Amino acid sequence: MPIEDWDRVLGVDLRGVFLCLRAELGHMVAAGHGRIVNMASNAGVKNAPAMAGYTAAKHGVVDLTKNAALQYARRNIRVNAVCPGTILTEGLAGYGPEQQAEWASLVPMGRIGTPAEVAGSVAYLLSDEAGFITGHSLLIDGGLMWD
Prior knowledge:
The chain is α/β, with parallel strands linked by helices. Helix content is 52%, strand content 12%.
């Protein structure tokens, strides 16, 4: 992997999350409460072959989430992450139906997830119903990591 690609991936996927966290937490400490959900990936929980930079960055997001959650829990700030697997985003939609069917066949649920399913999980983690959850990285991958 060229060093420029490594720097770009870590700059966007890890440093970007750090900078957002830093800004968000400053406001939330002043307000006395807050809820954050970081975007990680199932590649942040298990290694993804041939994706060293992305995997390293997403593992970093998972660990950064845990660190912030522990550091700010007593300040009434919850920090969690979601870890989507194969989701039918614009990027994935650009692949043909044969490729999408192949990816879906790898998922125990037999399908690709939807952006609405990711959004619903984020909404739950931001809700009062998730009031005792912090430092968690929620897999949204149709069971892929557990097969």
